[in-house]
Design goal:
The protein has about 120 residues and is mainly alpha-helical. The protein has 6 helices and no strands.
C-alpha cells in the first residue's frame, strides 16, 4: 500500500488495528481521555455515555467474531476444508513478508492436477 509507509495496515495487522480503533471509540464513549492526543490539561470529560465494562466486553466479542469470520473467509478463499491449512498459509505470508495479493494470485494460478500426476 503506497500510503502505508510504516506497514501499519500490513497483512496480519488488521486485527490489532481494528482493536485499537474500537478501543479509541470505547474511550470516547466512556469519557476516557487519550493522553497522546489531548494531554492531561486539555481534556474535559463530560461523563461516560457507556460503562467501561461494556466496551471491554465488545472488544472481547470482536476477537471471537473476527477469528470466526477470518477462518471462514480463508477456508472459502483457499478452498481448504479446515482452518489449520488457512492458518499455515497466513503464517507463511507473515514469515516471508510476501505480498498478499500477489501470493494469493500465484496460488490461484497453480495447476494442482498436473502437479499430482
Amino acid at each position: 500500500n503506497h500510503i502505508d509507509e510504516t506497514g501499519r495496515y500490513a497483512f496480519g495487522r488488521q486485527r490489532g488495528i481494528a482493536e485499537w480503533n474500537l478501543r479509541r471509540l470505547g474511550d470516547a464513549m466512556t469519557g476516557t481521555p487519550f493522553a497522546r492526543d489531548y494531554g492531561d490539561s486539555q481534556w474535559t470529560a463530560h461523563g461516560p455515555w457507556v460503562p467501561a465494562e461494556a466496551t471491554d466486553a465488545a472488544v472481547a466479542l470482536f476477537h471471537q467474531r473476527y477469528q470466526q469470520c477470518w477462518d471462514a473467509r480463508m477456508r472459502l478463499r483457499l478452498g481448504v476444508p479446515d482452518s489449520g491449512m488457512a492458518r499455515q498459509w497466513a503464517d507463511w505470508l507473515r514469515e516471508t513478508r510476501a505480498d498478499y495479493p500477489r501470493a494469493s494470485r500465484a496460488l490461484g494460478e497453480l495447476n494442482l492436477t498436473s502437479a499430482t500426476q
